[in-house]
């Protein structure tokens, strides 16, 4: 049996390959490895969304709402040219705790963050002074209005914000927890 590692024929050891040769091959491969989970304060392309458009990720440092029970602008996203906001999440850095950016813990213990599509801004609303003007991190994943959809396997492309024309329809069924009212 002939074994080739990185274009070189190897011999010796078990099955003709030594442990050192295996370790060297693994080390060489890992030396050029770049993880795909990139979190950066610079816009980074991370893949392709289901409509064929490039998918981007951006991490931002923000502060929560400036007053209790009032919506506050926390991040202007106009320059990002967001088409579809696929996912966003984050954490609030409190004095003794770290908590999710959006949560409800009963009564006035809540924080809510949402994206105002018309104003192209992220807004924050908090229910207790403990969450006012606190530092936070937010991770955004989105497509852009300038991204072009890729052709599908059949050659069709996205039209008018819908999925590719050759995408099969999926049946919709109620989950076990859903109930239906009958007339």
Provide the fold topology:
Elements: E1 3-5, E2 8-10, H1 19-31, E3 44-48, E4 54-63, E5 72-76, E6 82-93, E7 98-100, E8 103-104, E9 110-116, E10 121-126, E11 135-144
Antiparallel strand pairs: 1-2, 3-4, 4-11, 5-10, 6-7, 6-11, 8-9, 9-10
Q: Runs with pLDDT <50, length 5+?
A: 150-183
Q: Could you tell me how far the N terminus lies from the C terminus, measured between alpha carbons in angstroms?
A: 74 Å
Order of helices and strands: EEHEEEEEEEEE
Number of strands: 11
Q: Number of helical segments?
A: 1
Query: What proportion of the residues is helical, as a percent range?
Result: under 10%
Mean pLDDT rating: 78
* Structural class computed from helices and strand pairing: mainly beta
Envelope shape: elongated
Main beta sheet = 5 strands, antiparallel
In what range is the share of β-strand residues? 35-45%
Strand line-up of the largest beta sheet: 3-4-11-6-7
Our Rg estimate from Cα atoms comes to: 25 Å
Describe this structure as you would to a colleague.
Strand 9 and strand 10 form a beta hairpin. By secondary structure, the protein is mostly beta strands. The strands form three sheets. Strands 3-4-11-6-7 form a five-stranded antiparallel beta sheet, with no helix packed on it. The protein has a four-stranded antiparallel beta sheet with strand order 5-10-9-8, with no helix packed on it. Helix content is 7%, strand content 36%. It has one helix at residues 19-31, and strands spanning 3-5, 8-10, 44-48, 54-63, 72-76, 82-93, 98-100, 103-104, 110-116, 121-126, 135-144. The radius of gyration is 25 Å and the shape is elongated.
């Amino acid at each position: 049996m002939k074994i080739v590692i990185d274009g070189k024929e190897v011999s010796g050891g078990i099955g003709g390959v030594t442990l050192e040769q295996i370790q060297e091959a693994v080390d060489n491969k890992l030396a050029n490895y770049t993880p795909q989970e990139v979190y950066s304060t610079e816009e980074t392309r991370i893949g392709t969304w289901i409509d064929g458009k490039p998918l981007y990720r951006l991490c931002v440092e923000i502060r929560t709402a400036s007053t209790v029970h009032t919506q506050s602008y926390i991040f202007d996203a106009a320059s990002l040219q967001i088409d579809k906001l696929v996912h966003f999440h984050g954490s609030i850095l409190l004095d003794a705790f770290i908590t999710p950016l959006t949560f409800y813990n009963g009564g006035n213990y809540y924080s809510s963050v949402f994206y105002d599509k018309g104003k192209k801004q992220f807004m924050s609303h908090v229910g207790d002074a403990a969450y006012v003007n606190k530092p936070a991190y937010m991770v955004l994943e989105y497509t852009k209005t300038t991204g072009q959809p890729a052709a599908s396997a059949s050659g069709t492309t996205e039209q008018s914000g819908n999925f590719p024309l050759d995408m099969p329809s999926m049946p919709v069924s109620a989950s076990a927890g859903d109930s239906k009212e009958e007339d």
